[in-house]
Amino acid sequence: MKVSEKDVRYVEDLANLELTEAERARMVKDLNSVLDYIDRLNQLDTTNVAPMAQVSDRYGDSAKTGKARFEHAMRADVVGKSLGREAALANAPETDGVFFKVPKVIER
Amino acid sequence: MNLATLTIADVRSAIAERKTTATALAEAHYARIAEQDGEIHAYLTLSKERAFEQAARMDRMAENGDPLPPLAGVPVAIKDVMVTRGVRTTAGSKILQHYFPPYDSTAVARLEAAGAVLLGKTNCDEFAMGSSNENSAYGLVRNPHDKTRVPGGSSGGSAAAVAAGMCLGALGSDTGGSIRQPAALCGVVGVMPTYGRVSRYGLIAFASSLDHVGPLARTVRDSALLLRAIAGRDPLDSTSADQPVPDYEAELEKPVRGLKLGIAREYFGEGLDGEVRAAVEAAIQKLAAAGCEVVEVSLPHTEYAIPTYYVVATAEASSNLARYDGVRYGFRAKDGKSLSQMYRRTRDLGFGPEVKRRIMLGTYALSAGYYDAYYLKAQKVRALLTRDFDDAFARVDAILTPTTPTPAFKLGEKADDPLAMYLADIYTVTADLAGIPGVSVPCGKSRSGLPIGLQILTRHFDEATMLRLAAAVEDGNR
User: What's the pTM?
Assistant: First the structure.
């Protein structure tokens, strides 16, 4: 058992989730089962392997180096079109017509 | 007009010759949906107003003798993880139950610009997390070939809609096999393009370094037409690649003779169903008879693909899904007294069990003290898996594997065992990690009539060779 109920509560907190007792018990079991399986990665020696975060590192103009390679992904730093206020607020659960409304943030 | 066998290529000539109209085609498909979808449940939302407006536009162009765009009048469905302006988009989740996006995703906009008619949004596993479509908050999808079985996932609705004649083509998304696996189980063609070939702008993110948008269709030619319409650089997605897009349909005319095919022994071991093996081997023989050279290759790190995937994908998902907080869009729990309580209640009530499981796993893998052991380690193994393909593609033009270990499984069969479900993608996840393109093409059926798919993988940006080989396999298997 790598993950205890205490660990699950801690991660729950980090992930902004609130599990029920039943969900938490199931989560302990499921996470341990998957993590046991993931542990097989430790069979591999990766000492001199550079981590690969994403594939697009390999794209771009290979004749160039550094930032120049990805010039195609850059654009001028100018203000473009964006959603108007009405469209931006249209899907919000609660607004005052100008801002998003949320429950009280400051505790007194 | 038999909607179950109609192809996009047929529609193109029928509309140009005025044998049918886009409006009639849309009406016929909606009638078919009304008749079939009560049981299959491939669609979550129908966009009739938008569809008939577009159909009328195409019909007017045909009447005026204007040149028609390449997909004029073609009825398509869109997986509900791609945003569509004014058309409800849920990602199969309760947390987006009432979300009406203010913009279109690039792939959708490009399909419409090419003349396609958007029939509606298809059911999928919540946030594309699943391999059976049983994780949708809106109910499961049934496989049109056997209603007691899963259609695969997460693009199960798109695959089932194409298979059941409820659209001519569809868009799906593939993060670990979510286009190719349901395509195989439903007996249609599913294409995952190279990472960066199709813009991800407007695709609701699951794992950003693995997410791909791609087409599902009844034939390879139809997939080629759809891919051509949506592919290419998009300034709205900085990871979209600046590469010329070939005319994939024209590429299909080239012969396959002389191509070198690799068979990876790691994909034919324990766990592979005998009937799937036989159908895949027969397809390989067929290509050999057409003049391809078949050699064995090794992809030695294959067994580490699933564990690598479940670290990388869940880590990225935990970050991407942090945006669902009940503030700006979607569902909000009513009883949150404070901001943080509102966040927690909203996410607890809004997300389903599999999504919570993956958020928890990803958060754990990125948390202090575990980052190096899990996330960094997985990134290093991802590099090794990609190197395997680089080495193999130095020797061969394509790699052939089964798409799935078994044909479609029973509804509920793996629902209580997340690990068993994860292993349903064992042959597909590696391509997502390496960013190479893959297609699943029907290559036969089991004795009980369930479809079987062959997967063809090629080098980055070589979708043309992949589709050519798929077309050679397809003849006789449709």
Answer: 0.97
